[in-house]
User: Which sequence fits this backbone?
């Protein structure tokens, strides 16, 4: 066949083009400027319009002033910092079912390897990897200080009082 290319050749050409161009698209996305004022105003407007009763516990002025302050400071903050600050304002509204998903920004190497729950009488460790099972079910805080080690690595302690 003269003048035509095989489907396999075209597939290889598309794959090579993707491998060369994909990093350029990713770099462009990383350096893209975020219009924080617009994005945060839109989030506030959408939450207020679509939430059945966003201001049942806290005044709307507190919500909007919190969002305005974050929009002003956002250019100097990381995406993680902006996300957490937005979550703090939303948490003040008192609705446990509304929130910001900022967990994709957390460096798992910098967090303690367990999950806690706040019961009436204190905070307890409910989940942990098997290698840290010594702390499972422990109440954080109290009148003693307990240090916990995972093999040869310190992994945390309960609050000392």
Assistant:
């Amino acid at each position: 066949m003269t003048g035509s290319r095989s489907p396999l050749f075209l597939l290889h050409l598309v794959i090579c083009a993707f491998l060369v161009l994909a990093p350029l698209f990713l770099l462009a996305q990383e350096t893209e400027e975020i219009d924080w004022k617009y994005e945060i105003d839109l989030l506030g407007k959408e939450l207020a319009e679509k939430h059945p009763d966003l201001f049942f516990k806290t005044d709307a002025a507190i919500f909007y002033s919190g969002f305005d302050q974050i929009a002003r400071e956002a250019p100097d903050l990381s995406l993680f910092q902006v996300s957490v600050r937005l979550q703090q304002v939303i948490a003040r509204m008192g609705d446990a079912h509304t929130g910001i998903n900022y967990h994709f920004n957390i460096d798992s190497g910098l967090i303690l390897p367990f999950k806690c729950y706040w019961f009436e009488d204190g905070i307890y460790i409910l989940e942990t990897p098997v290698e840290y099972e010594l702390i499972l079910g422990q109440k954080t805080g109290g009148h003693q200080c307990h240090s916990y080690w995972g093999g040869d690595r310190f992994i945390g302690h309960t609050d000392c009082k």
Observations:
- Confidence is low (pLDDT under 50) at residues 143-152.
- The chain has four helices and five strands.
